[in-house]
Structure formats: structure tokens, C-alpha cells
Design brief:
Distance between the termini: 15 Å
Order of helices and strands: HHHHHHHHH
CATH architecture of the largest domain: Orthogonal Bundle
CATH topology of the largest domain: Arc Repressor Mutant, subunit A
Shape: globular
Number of helices: 9
Strand content: under 5%
Structural class: mainly alpha
Number of strands: 0
């Protein structure tokens, strides 16, 4: 936490400086970042990016993502998504897992939790209301998924965010 606090202060200072001083401050921040050890940070995404999609696969992944964006608040079945990209449910499941390096429902949960985080930060809605807003039908399941993905409860996430930015 002290590392993030230090960088927070430097980034906030950066916004108030004269352009030339901004550049030197930015270089200073980048230097500090380059010297961090693994104990000083945690990765936001543990899987490396692999840009090996051909145009057909890229179109399919984009179509799947658009479907999720449009429908994440509702119950989503594998068949519904598979039909949208003209695949059988079984083939879709294998295709998605192979290309995205994770099962479809894991990806969907991560997307829903990212939407929940956005609401936790930008609104004062109750956690239970956010749970249902992002497509979960059960508060305990939402809380388990949130903790699994973010490492803390939704309330702790909101409190940590407020502490860091106030």
C-alpha cells in the first residue's frame, strides 16, 4: 500500500507542474517503476497477451464481446452466445477456451465484476443492488466471485478506493 500511496502522490503532483517539470517528474516515476520488485506490486492480469487471432477468429471474439456488453445484465447461456457466432455450444466452449485461455463463464464473471467495480466507484448504490444490476441472481455467489477475482469483498473494494483517492 505504501508503494501505491507514493506513486499516487507523484501522479497527483504531476498534474500541477509546468510542462518541462512534468516531463522530468514522469521520467522520475518511470525510473521508480522500473526499480520495483515483485513484492512491491501485483499483476492486474496474470496471463500474457497472445495476439494470434486471424480475422475470422477476431470477428468472432468481437461478436462475443459485443454480445456480453449488451446482455451481461441478463442470464446468459452458452447456447445463446454460440448461436450468435454460428457455432454449436460444445465447439464454442472449446473455441473460446482455446482463444481466450479461460472458460467462457470465467470471462463473463470477470466482465460482470469489472462492471460492478465501476458502479462501486462511481455510485453510492448498495452492494446488493449492484449485484443484481450486473447480472448475478444471488448475493452470496456475487460476493464469492468478487472476492475470488478482486481478493476482497465489494464493500472493502469501495472503502479501499475511497481511502486511496480521498
Amino acid at each position: 500500500m505504501e508503494t501505491s500511496q507514493r506513486f499516487r502522490e507523484k501522479c497527483l503532483t504531476l498534474t500541477t507542474l509546468h510542462p518541462v517539470k512534468k516531463l522530468t517528474c514522469l521520467v522520475d516515476i518511470l525510473q521508480d517503476l522500473s526499480e520495483l520488485t515483485q513484492a512491491d506490486y501485483r499483476l492486474l492480469c496474470k496471463q500474457p497477451y497472445s495476439g494470434e487471432l486471424n480475422s475470422l477468429n477476431s470477428e468472432r471474439i468481437n461478436a462475443i464481446y459485443r454480445y456480453i456488453e449488451k446482455n451481461y445484465k441478463k442470464k446468459i447461456s452458452l447456447n445463446d452466445v454460440a448461436e450468435g457466432v454460428y457455432m454449436s455450444a460444445g465447439y464454442f466452449s472449446r473455441f473460446f477456451s482455446h482463444k481466450m485461455k479461460k472458460p467462457f463463464f470465467e470471462f463473463l464473471n470477470e466482465y460482470r465484476i469489472s462492471q460492478a467495480c465501476k458502479q462501486l466507484i462511481e455510485t453510492e448504490k448498495a452492494v446488493s443492488e449492484i449485484c443484481f444490476d450486473v447480472g448475478y441472481e444471488s448475493i452470496p455467489y456475487f460476493n464469492r466471485q468478487f472476492k475470488k477475482i478482486k481478493g476482497c469483498s465489494p464493500r472493502e473494494f469501495r472503502e479501499n478506493y475511497k481511502k486511496a483517492f480521498t
